[in-house]
Amino acid sequence: EDEQIVAEIMGRRFFPDLITHKTWEGFHFAGHEIRITEATDCYGAVVWPSALVLCYFLETNSKQCNLVDKNVIEIGAGTGLVSIVASLLGAFVTATDLPELLGNLQHNVLRNTKQKCKHQPCVKELSWGIDLEKNFPRSSCHFDYIMAADVVYHHPFLDELLLTFDHLCKNDTVILWAMKFRLEKENRFVDRFQMLFDLEMISNFPSLNIALYKAMRKGRMKA
Question: Has the keyword Transferase been applied to this entry (predicted)?
Fold first, then answer.
């Protein structure tokens, strides 16, 4: 079953017939052909399999996870694929990442959502743990969903990442987080995450070493 679903997920990707001066990959999600421009010299400008897993979940669970008119923020949006799919499914999306990635992110988001979405998504800078209250004040920012794909890997900002999840998450916010398991240090982040949030694994793909989680603040999952 794992191999069949993984084959279906990876089958959503296609490549250009002709080599062009810009590197791009294509994807089929939410009834659209999505073209993503990448940069191979930067981790944040490449589409990783965790993003495909999350996009596949959003599309195939659109009734249980209805994004129409929902307020969604993606942290570590990278190339923007997850944000684009959420937008095509009817959400109002804020796609965020580091300042040096915003140009490519904005290009991909605009190219694939203009005149195709109910709500035009916005792109905004978010450096984890920095100026959170200034840029995303708790009093006025309310997100129905926080989405993240492959944000936990060997980087020195895991503390700041956890702080960012904590700041953005209200009592009724749902976190959808796709994670590829790599090294023990990063895996221990899950234990720390569970000190603040109830965590439920909703999909597991051993052949990809990727798990998809749903999380809410402690005590809110069943409520």
Answer: yes
Q: Is the dihedral of CA 99, 95, 74, 219 positive or negative?
A: positive
How far is residue 128's CA from residue 131's CA, in Å, rounded to a whole number? 9
| Beta strands 145-149 and 174-180, pairing class | parallel
3-state secondary structure of 214: strand
Q: Residue 122 belongs to a domain with what CATH number?
A: 3.40.50.150
Handedness of CA 212, 217, 218, 222 (dihedral sign): negative
Q: Are 126 and 164 in contact (CB under 8 A)?
A: yes
Instruction: Judge contact between 44 and 122, C-beta under 8 A.
Output: no
**Which one, of 128, 120, 69, 119, lies nearest residue 101 by Cα?**
128
Residue 15: which pLDDT band, with cuts at 50, 70 and 90? confident
Whole-model pTM: value is 0.93
Considering the domain boundaries, does residue 222 fall inside one? no
Query: Which DSSP state fits 31?
Result: T
User: How far apart, in whole angstroms, are the C-alpha atoms of residue 67 and residue 143?
Assistant: 12
Domain of residue 165, residue span: 1-217
